[in-house]
Design goal:
It is a single chain. This protein is of the alpha/beta class. It has six helices and 34 strands. Helix content is 20%, strand content 36%.
Length: 479
């Protein structure tokens, strides 16, 4: 038997519509709880909307659910409205743009591992960005089903870890280096040091050192290690069969260099040590050693001096531009010891000077007709006749190259004068001075002349005379 559809008034119908709102007001459910004996009952969307309004639900109403729930079966609870959760802001983030990892050996292309390439030094240059900050966000507000705004919690800011030799960019989002050097973290601050100090030995545990500033080592430098620095390198221990290079500064070894024919030291300026054995040294300035240099190769653009006790140079080859000073030269065993005092940079400098003079001559030849044209222009002056006007236009067109050729000549003239001044600084006396003994086996070459020592001498000064021949004099007798 078909039941008769009951027609209830609005108030009666809506009394059976149950709307529940969750405690956080982000969800509302609807359940039509009509007794079975009263079914079927005609319900409308307006009934549902009225019940929602009565409970204060005004946001996030699902219209599809509204259309569906008015139809049987009843007594089922469904989510009819959902609010919008708030989205809290994200905290600021710091992005470190330099390696913070542990020392890791470098893997070579062939699969082998170089245990000396550990990346011990983290080099940065002035102006380099070290840390970037991603600003905090404010988040997005939410809304309850009852229409109340839910305020988000803004993200927390973070300070850039500014430490020594760093600065924050004007926009506050970057930490930059204010000098070049080694970057590291100390006490949660980013620091840049242009002096790199190692308190231990340099060996396989540290690997090679490659630094843009000054390096100070308070230990020894082991075999096969390479230290490269832009500025001075100071080592307070011994140096073994290592490679030490200073591209702009000096190298100072407080103790010894035991090279075993594999050590190589090169400095833009000076090299100094207590004593040197079986090593190769190259310096743009002086080489100063306290006690002795044995079986080594030394080449410098200044002087070589070994004047402490015992003050010996024996075995090997020694080249310098200015002079060599020592107590003893050679040894009783007659070991071959070759000394050369000669300006081995002069040919290159002469070649550079010759090129400058040639360029100057070419420019002068180009400028000669232009200077004559300028003279003609001055003579024409402000004459207004047709012939003068035509000639003036021709001369003005002719002298146009003068504007860029003359400045070039001025620059070349300055370079020539600088070279001339530099040549004058190379005019210091070239000599070899031995305060003690000079043994057979020593060969002394100064300029074009050479002396082979066949008998032992004492306290002699070897000096080049008139750029032709070597004069041997007693040190005490002077000239």
């Amino acid at each position: 038997m078909i039941k008769e559809i009951r027609k209830l008034d609005d108030r009666a119908r809506r009394a059976y519509i149950k709307i529940n709102v969750s405690p956080n007001q982000l969800k509302a459910t609807c359940k039509i709880d009509i007794p079975e004996e009263l079914e079927p009952v005609i319900l409308t969307k307006e009934d549902i909307k009225a019940a929602l309004k009565l409970r204060g639900v005004v946001f996030g109403i699902n219209e599809e659910i509204v259309n569906d729930i008015i139809n049987p079966p009843y007594r089922r609870e469904v989510v009819i409205a959902e609010g919008k959760p708030k989205k809290n802001g994200e905290d600021a983030k710091l992005e470190y743009l330099f390696d913070l990892g542990k020392l890791t050996p470098k893997e070579l292309e062939d699969g082998r591992v170089d245990f000396f390439e550990l990346g011990y030094v983290k080099n940065v240059v002035e102006g380099q960005i070290l840390v970037k900050k991603i600003p905090p966000t404010s988040g997005e507000a939410g809304m309850t089903v009852t229409g109340k705004r839910i305020e988000p919690i803004s993200g927390r800011d973070k300070k850039l870890p500014m430490g020594k030799n760093t600065e924050i960019s004007p926009n506050g989002l970057e930490l930059r280096a204010t000098t070049q050097g080694h970057v590291y973290i100390k006490n949660n601050k980013v620091m840049v040091e242009n002096i790199f100090v190692i308190s231990s030995d340099i060996d396989v545990s540290t690997g090679h050192i490659d630094f843009l500033g000054r390096v100070i080592v308070h230990g020894d430098v082991a075999d096969r290690i390479r230290i490269t620095a832009r500025d001075d390198i100071e080592i307070y221990g011994d140096v073994r069969a290592a490679t030490i290079k200073s591209t702009e500064g000096s190298i100072k070894i407080s103790r010894a260099i035991f090279g075993r024919n594999s050590a190589f030291l090169k400095a833009k300026k000076n090299i100094s040590a207590r004593f040197v054995e079986q090593a190769r040294l190259e310096a743009g300035g002086d080489v100063i050693v306290q006690e002795y240099i044995l079986h080594s190769e030394v080449r410098c653009e200044g002087k070589i001096a070994v004047l402490g006790k015992p003050g010996i140079i024996a075995g090997g080859s020694y080249y310098c531009i200015e002079s060599l000073y020592t107590n003893d030269l050679g040894s009783e065993s007659g070991v071959k010891t070759q000394v050369e005092v000669n300006d081995f940079t002069a040919p290159k400098l002469q070649e550079e000077m010759s090129k400058l003079l040639d360029e100057r001559s070419v420019l002068k030849a180009k400028l000669a007709p232009l200077e004559r044209a300028l003279k003609d222009l001055r003579e024409i002056g402000i004459r207004e006749d047709a012939l003068a006007t035509q000639r003036r236009e021709e001369l003005l067109e002719l002298v146009k190259p003068f504007r860029y050729l003359y400045p070039q000549l001025c620059l070349l003239e300055d370079e020539v004068e600088e070279k001339k001044k530099f040549f004058k600084t190379l005019s210091s006396p070239q000599e070899v001075v031995c305060l003690g003994r000079i043994y057979p086996g020593v060969i002394i070459k100064i300029g074009p002349d050479e002396v082979v020592i066949k008998a032992m001498y004492s306290s002699k000064r070897f000096v080049l005379i008139n750029n032709k021949s070597i004069s041997v004099r007693d040190v005490r007798a002077g000239r």
